[in-house]
Amino acid sequence: MKNLWVLLIWMLSMSEAVAQNIYFTAQGEQDGKPVIYRSMEKVPAGQAEKDFPTLVNISWPYAADTNNGMPDASTNADQIAFEDAIESLDQNGVGHLMLVVTGNGRKEWFWYVKDSAGWMAKLNELLVGHKVYPLEIATEHQPDWSTYHHFVSSVEGVE
To answer: What is the pTM of this model?
Structure first.
């Protein structure tokens, strides 16, 4: 996340779990291509990081050599359908979507979840009837939320 130059645009979250929390977007560059970041400004109110100890990283690779590293219209529509389908996983007691990175040939969603097995089962249930998306999913025990905190600390103007 080097060379991160920041344009902060404040907006309210759309999900029930984080309705009172604030997202921000930032623009950066990787390998000469633009990258868009969407992140929660802070840990959701009333939530303890240690209660959501597993980082779930969902990555969707796509062609980086076209569209300046951003998804084409069809891929973007599929990514929006995917994100809309799993929005209900972002709720207190289940998990929190803390960071989304788009650009340079991939879109990544960084979730912190309470019960990874239960969360993955619900993810699969929510995607029944959807086309098969080209997802790569990795989990990591990360009770300190270091990926999220490292990102937020690198953005000027976010406390």
So the answer is: 0.86
